[in-house]
Amino acid sequence: MKRFFSLLLCLAMLLSVAGCGNNNDAGGTGTTPPANDGGNGSGAPEGAAAIYRKLYSSEVTTLNYLSTGTTLEFEPAANVIDTLVEYDKYGMVQPALATSWETSEDGLTWTFHLRNDAKWVKSDGSEYAPVTAHDFVTGLRWVVNPENQSKTSDVVCSVIANADELYTKKITDFEQLGVKAEDDYTLVYTLKAPTPYFLSMLTYVCFMPANADFLAEKGEKFGAAESADNLLYCGAYRIADFQPSVLHTFVKNDSYWDKENVFIDEIQETFNKEAVTLAPSLYQRGETDYAVIPADILPTWMNDAKLKDVVAPQRNSYYSYFFCFDFDPQFDAAYEPENWKKAVNNENFRKSLYYALDRVRAKTVEEPYNPESQLIGTVTPPNFVSADGVDYTQLDALKGYSNDPNHGYDETKAKEYKTKAMEELKAAGASFPVKILMSYNPSTANWDKQCQIIEQQLEGLLGTDYIDIVLEAGPSTNFLSEVRKAGKYALMLCNWGPDYADPETYTDPWSLGFTYSWPELSTDPAYETGETYTAEDAAALGLEDKFIGAKVKTYNKMVDAAKAEKLDISARYQKFAEAEAYFIDHAFIIPFAVKNDGYCVNKISPFDRPFAPFGVSTLKFKGAKLLEKPMSLEEYQAAEAQWEQEREAAMAKAG
To answer: Residue 298 and residue 296: Cα distance in Å, rounded?
Structure first.
């Protein structure tokens, strides 16, 4: 489903390469409840170790960060292995194992200068060896060796020169891989093509270092999820105790180069198969510092004066949710696919639905306390990337959608577009009401309820003389392949998460031939350039035969122009913003919201931790401090507002 790998946490990160000077401010936001730190900054009473306790219900199958492709197994790696660069709490890129870097004029060569005080340590904390440029060469060669079957090899193969050739065995000399250690502390990558977002990819596990001697010593036991002794550590923490399905203990790495910004001394993860269910009561008994509050008991907690005071939202993710119109319907004749084709290819019809959808009302099903906090007016979420100190969603082409206080909802416009659409569609031979098949997965909590509200709301505003929304539950398993990829819907909520720090990642669902709504097959004249795809084009692009003779679409042409701008980031982002605005303006998509995992109690603030929408940055505990008590909803909102102000200032400074 994703270009690289779908199990990445799609969290928050910025491509702000101006951060070659270190920013060691890892403190709180100022509105965060005070840490009970006895004046020592750790979050613990004076003289006591700062210990953070949490539960886990699924055991990792490996600690080998070069091998794994799952979020569950990224978290240990994020905390025990450092990367060349890291992201601070505002999403600004900072030096980590590299102190500085530069790129060649053609964008193909990236040179990193490593610090000389980083150490590999064993699980007991004893020093093993210095971290050198050779360790990054070793790690990358391991990933692209097909015998190792790394789950993240495709990330490397997408950007590094000769990586794909080595992985597919077209060549066998690993000296040809586009990574070299010029000396112990100078590392050079050669890319297959200019990649503006390459820096952001360096926080993926596949770009982490590995010591060659230790790797050879351990062999197949490297990273085996049996013992903490099967890894070396160069990050903020080391694993002191690893007992599968019992306990994981992470302790502060005293040899870490930046240990002054590690405030929690120990992280204890205790196994409990019923963690999700039991965590709230265990928190009340003082046995855990973090618990998700499930939706079924959330009202009870929010109506209890004492419990309400410690419940706050989890941070929004960077999974963008939007309503897709299906331009290649493959559903049953009972739902009138040919009539739907006429309707969906009429811009006024699409716009009538765009303006008729009450996003706040639809979101309230999932977020009854502050639904507007998750609504977005663009496909790309805010706080994702910036150019010249300006958030991407605030660029001229997009800021009108981002700042719309009604989030696109406008009853007057909806009815005006309905009138225009009915006149045009009647002339085109369409019948009314237009049946709109809205499919949903019954195993996804509240999706059915949300669809019911949308059905009532849209039909109530636009009239059942105009539309007939038909709800259909798809299969609980294989929903993706059997419904969305099969085109068995007319209007449906879909989502996408980012793979790298560039707006291009949010255009991927509508790449030619991709299985997200097929707008490239639209017959709407407003979407066509006059050019057509030939058989040769289809073969070169790997398209199905149905694209032969199809008109080249304006959106795809605009995206291609943005992709071609490799070196001028400001111009590149402007072009992507214009393409996204075109897509929204012509109602080929209805932006909706970002994903949020609900409410929790948590004795650390999310605003002190690294901020990044992909890679492993947000999984780090570096910078986190224990709070005197978990944040309330009001305290969270105040902290978030202050963080946004501080981030804006940080962006302006970096820009």
So the answer is: 6
Q: Report the DSSP pairing between strands 467-473 and 434-440.
A: parallel
Model confidence at 430, pLDDT cuts 50, 70, 90, reads very high
What is the per-residue burial (b if ≥16 Cβ within 10 Å, else e) of 617-635?
bbbbbbbbbbbeebbbbeb
Distance CA 208, CA 336 (A): 52
Quickly list DSSP for 570-602: HHHHHHHHHHHHHHHHTTSEEEEEE----EEEE
Residues 6+ apart with CB under 8 A from 628: 33, 34, 35, 36
Mean pLDDT of 503-526: 88
For the record, the structure tokens of 213 come out as 């001697």
- Helices (H), ranges, 145-186: 153-157, 163-167
Task: Report the C-alpha gap between 425 and 479 in whole angstroms.
Answer: 32
Other Cβ atoms closer than 10 A to 303 = 9
Alpha carbon of 142 to those of 30, 39, 97, 217, 517: distances in Å? Answer: 44, 45, 20, 15, 38
Q: What order do you get walking across the sheet with 237-243 strand by strand? A: 51-56, 266-271, 247-252, 237-243
Burial class (CB in 10 A: 0-12, 13-18, 19+), 317: buried
Residue 367 has pLDDT above 50, yes or no: yes
Name residue, tokens 């004492």. 306
CA-nearest of 603, 630, 617, 605 to 30 is: 605
pTM above 0.90, yes or no: no
Rounded to whole angstroms, the Cα distance separating 522 from 518 reads: 7
Kindly report the three-state secondary structure assignment for every residue of 519-554.
HHHCCCHHHEEEEECCHHHHHHHCCCHHHCCCEEEH
Enter the tokens of residue 417: 């577009």
Tell the residue number behind the tokens 């082409």, with chain if given: 397
The CA distance from 457 to 371, in Å, is 17
Q: What is the full DSSP assignment across 2-67?
A: -SS-TTS--------TT--S--------SSSPPP--TTSSSSS-TTS--EEEEEESS--SB--TTT
Looking up tokens 């049953």, which residue turns up?
332
Residue 37 has pLDDT above 60, yes or no: no
Phi/psi-derived region of residue 407, left when phi > 0, alpha when psi is between -120 and 50, beta in every other case = left
pLDDT 10s digits, 572-625 = 999 999 999 999 999 999 999 999 889 999 999 999 999 988 778 889 999 999
Residue 474 backbone class (left: φ over 0; alpha: ψ -120 to 50; beta: rest)? beta
Q: What angle do CA 301, 303, 305 make, to 5 degrees?
A: 85
